[in-house]
Amino acid sequence: MLSMVKRLAFLLTCAVLAAGIVSMARPACAAELREIVVSHSQYFLDIRLGFDSKPAYTEAFRFDPDRYLLTFTGCKLVVPEDVKTALAEIDHSLLTRISTYQSSDNLQLGFYLNLPVQPLIRFDQQNYYLRFYTSVRSEQTIQLATGVSLIEKTSAYRDSNFHLYMVKIDPGSQVRLYTAAADRYDGKTRRREASSFARREGADVVINGGFFGSAGEHLSTLVEDGIIRATGVYPTRPLMVVTTDGQVLIGRFNVETALIVNGSRIPVSAKNYPYEPGKVIVYDYKYPIENLPQNGMFYYLLENNQLRFYSYSTSGLWLAPEVMLIGTDIIPEANPLQQIPAGTSVQLETRITDMNGQVVQARSAVGGAPMLIENGAVNISSAEDKVRADIAKSERSRTAVALTRSGQLILAVVKELESAGFGGVTLEALSDLLLTEGAYTAMNLDGGGSSTIVVAGEVLNMAESEQRPVSNVLVLALDESGMLAGAQTSDAQAPAPSTAASKYNPQN
Asked: Whole-prediction pTM value?
């Protein structure tokens, strides 16, 4: 009998142990994920995961790209396929998509991020809440005037911090927006610090403008007080134009300079641009003509609508305001001016036309490159505008102008200050930032050490060293002597982007 009892006890022990092994092999839970809701505020991104019971989870982080992984043990996904598809198409400054992967009884969610950040996690009844802090670390807004605000953001892109300043100007604001060149005050100074422009103009806001050369020559198109001061040799590079009736335009325009002879047009390559072989370029009295080539050239003077040969160099030449100098190559086939008979009436014309050939009456204009955003989408035209790859892809300080779909104008400057831990941004990152701010079209201006913003006399983005003097700036005066009638985008019929919230897409 004792032997039988021992045998039964042994079998019972084995059964208990086997039951324990089977129990251990079973899933710790049988939870099902039934809902995913994504929303965000100014500083963070919230994701709610709706379960029918509480599952266990593990965390991991991979850099391929930055991907935060949550694995729930013994769980299944029952969220509809259309919702899973939408999760894979999320477009947010921090989160680009959420992937779902079911393996046996384990469910893995992958969060593709622009920053290597992990969320705060809490559980409330049947919901897990994930809070990712977004790229905006802090934000401050100061109202400068009715319809004009200054926004300062300390932000991050990938693993780099940066500092962003924006002046936003609503259409119809009582302000004056115009360009100013460094020689505006004495006729000869080629470059000035942005703060010097601000003092002389009594301006409330100044940002740096277009590209320039080592002697302060304008390398981008510039219109000042209705006068086309300079054009580049790339005639369809982007422009920001303020028209005579106060409209603001950003886009591509044709900038043409020509000699009108007997009703015919002889194209001129550029105005006030450093000479390049094989070109015909015109210069006025404000250009540093001492920097022009002193041999292998033909120089002509245009005065009182009469063209005459001057010399093979500019030695000893002084230009009066009403006289223009035209430089051309000594090679006959590159010199169309030789065809003009003595005494022929010659007129010089420079004009700006849109892509439909309509003349644009510009009160002010500044050129830049490349385009960053067109028709509400990032479209960086570095190759088309002949912008070097090292400039486009490097991380540096940046200056840009943008228009939103509603016609709001944005003046943006990114500060690079390594000693304070702030880096610059690439053109791609700059475009993403402006797109987040609602930009429908945007254009890059001169950057690097030139990037400067002055507000109320204070240089906000003081660089590591002293300010770099620049050849031209954009000036904003907050007064009632002028008005920006509005701002135009390049596609007036395009639909506005949706701002509706959903259960699975971020609220934009």
From this structure: 0.73
